[in-house]
């Protein structure tokens, strides 16, 4: 039976956001709920330790809230992307992976959050997966409330029907190549208290 068509762009109701925040905390994730992308950006910047080596995925969410441009454009931050974007994606891929494998702080988004509090990340290259999973000392994940879905089946539906087509079109426009869904990471809970902070944005940000 085919899944029903779902609008994956609508923000979640306030009460649901509160419930998901509680479920995430029960899984050992720290959670900050904000209203806007601007507030999310401020929360992230306030959590960057002085001198920290920072990495991030090429996230539409981080672009939308203005964080990516701030990290790229300021000499105040030791941002790994400043180095990796100067390297060749084919001939210097191994060097790129090594640079991003063990940052002090990884900043990223997720493609879906289940109502139970599971965080789902998918990737084409897989280069950011290691840092998100364990390589980074600290992890900050920023996500708009439109990414909240009922369960893992709905999470994969969201990725297949909504996220993947967008990312594929973006990569074709930027590089003339198609993307691929090759890696899936599900963060069920955090092993170490204080490692991962989820900044949950009531307004839709990102894809």
Q: Helical percent range?
A: 25-40%
Q: What is the H-and-E element order?
A: HEHEHHEHHEEEHEEHEE
The N- to C-terminal Cα distance equals 26 Å
Strand content: 15-25%
Widest beta sheet: strand line-up: 1-10-7-4-2-3
Number of distinct helices: 8
Derived from helix and strand composition plus strand pairing, the structural class reads alpha/beta
Describe this structure in words.
The protein is an alpha/beta fold. The protein is 39% helix and 21% strand. The protein contains 8 helices and 10 strands. The protein has helices at residues 14-26, 37-46, 60-64, 67-73, 80-84, 93-101, 129-135, 152-175; strands at residues 30-34, 53-56, 78-79, 105-108, 112-114, 119-123, 138-144, 148-149, 183-187, 196-201. A 6-stranded parallel β-sheet has the order 1-10-7-4-2-3, with helices on both faces. A 4-stranded mixed β-sheet has the order 8-5-6-9, with helices on one face. Strand 5 and strand 6 form a beta hairpin. The longest helix has 24 residues, at 152-175. It is globular. It starts with 13 loop residues before the first helix and ends in a 6-residue tail after the last strand. The model has no long low-confidence stretch (mean pLDDT 94).
């Amino acid at each position: 039976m085919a899944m029903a068509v779902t609008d994956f762009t609508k923000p979640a109701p306030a009460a649901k956001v509160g419930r998901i925040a509680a479920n995430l905390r029960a899984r050992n994730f720290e959670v900050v709920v904000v209203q806007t992308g601007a507030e999310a950006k401020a929360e992230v910047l306030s959590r960057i330790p002085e001198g920290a080596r920072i990495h991030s995925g090429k996230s539409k969410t981080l672009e939308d809230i203005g964080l990516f441009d701030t990290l790229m454009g300021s000499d105040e931050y030791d941002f790994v992307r400043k180095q990796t974007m100067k390297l060749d994606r084919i001939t210097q891929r191994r060097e790129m992976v090594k640079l991003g494998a063990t940052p002090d702080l990884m900043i990223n988004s997720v493609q879906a959050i289940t109502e139970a509090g599971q965080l789902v990340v998918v990737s084409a290259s897989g280069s950011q997966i290691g840092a998100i999973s364990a390589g980074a000392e600290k992890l900050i994940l920023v996500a708009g409330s439109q990414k909240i879905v009922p369960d893992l089946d709905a999470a994969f539906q969201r990725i297949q029907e909504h996220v993947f087509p967008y990312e594929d079109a973006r990569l074709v426009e930027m590089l003339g190549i198609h993307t691929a869904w090759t890696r899936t990471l599900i963060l069920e809970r955090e092993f170490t208290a204080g490692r991962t902070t989820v900044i949950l944005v009531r307004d839709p940000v990102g894809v």
